[in-house]
Amino acid sequence: MKKYQLGEFEELVILAIGILNNEAYSVSIKDELESRLSRTVSMGALHTALKRLEDKGLLKSFSGDTTEERAGRPKRYFEITALGKKALQYTKETRDALWKAIPKTVWQAKFVV
Q: C-alpha angle 9/13/14, rounded to 5°?
């Protein structure tokens, strides 16, 4: 199902939004990903992914309240749509099936580094 296919970074972004629930805006998503993945996430890459996911109908966004600390600009919050939830479920089921298909002998073999 092409409409449910997610790239790795897209999947991670949606998962972070799920974790953050009602507090998912770009900076909190970036912080969540960086803390959990121990890698740097560029704001440009994040904004590109958020726009792409919203264009696909997997996310929707809304403006929060304006604040003085943001010079009167509202935060843009994100939430997962029903289609986004289906895409995540499809991705999880697909990955689980692939993991289960790996023969046990693969894990018993010695790894050479």
A: 120
